[in-house]
Structure formats: structure tokens, C-alpha cells
Amino acid sequence: MAPGARIGAHHHDIHQVVHVGSGALAVTTGAGTWFSPGTRAIRATADCAHARRTHGHLALHLLGPPADTDPRSPSSA
């Protein structure tokens, strides 16, 4: 994704784990904003409305565990 790219508020029917390989990602929900630098990940649970903004040249890696699993569990990835 290009630096400064924005994705407006949306949600997913599955959990989403977003690993930031390079750059940084800001994820905003109704509870606040979280920043994930390169080599870190952010988790958004199913049906959690969130928006994204990129900082720097971003490389993303996405996982989408089903909503009926615990996305914090290594066995669900």
C-alpha cells in the first residue's frame, strides 16, 4: 500500500490478523487508535468496525481465522 493510504471504516465476518512487514499501520476503532510498526501485528475481531491509515511504504500480510475461533490461539492461524 502507498504511504498515506486510507481505508475507511469497515468490518469483516472473520477475524483479521494484520502483520506489518515494513512501514507502519494505524488502526482506529471506537475504542481508540493503535499503531503497528514493521515486524508487529494487529488483530481485529470479527464484526469490529475499524479504519486504517498507512505510514511509509507498507508491506502487509493478512490472516483471516474464522469468527468461531479464538484469533489469539496459535492453532487458529
What's the helix and strand layout?
Elements lengths: L5 E5 L5 E14 L2 E6 L2 E5 L5 E14 L14
Antiparallel strand pairs: 1-5, 2-3, 2-4, 2-5
Q: How would you describe this protein?
A:
The structure is a single chain. It is built from no helices and 5 strands. By secondary structure, the protein is mainly β. The protein has strands at about 5-10, 15-30, 30-35, 40-45, 50-65. Strands 1, 2, 3, 4 and 5 form a 5-stranded antiparallel beta sheet that branches. The protein has one domain: Sandwich (Jelly Rolls), CATH 2.60.120. About 0% of the residues lie in helices and about 55% in strands.
Low-confidence sequence ranges? none
CATH topology: Jelly Rolls
| Helical content (DSSP H or I, runs of 4+) | under 10%
Q: Kindly name the structural category.
A: mainly beta
Report the biggest beta sheet as strand number plus sense, adding barrel if it closes: 5 strands, antiparallel
CATH class placement: Mainly Beta
* Distance linking N and C termini: 23 Å
Instruction: Output the helix-strand order.
Output: EEEEE
Number of helices: 0
Computed CA radius of gyration, to the nearest angstrom: 12 Å
CATH-level-2 architecture: Sandwich
- Amount of beta strand: over 45%
How would the global form be characterised?
globular
Mean pLDDT over the full residue set = 87
Total number of strands: 5
Number of domains: 1
CATH H-tier superfamily: Jelly Rolls
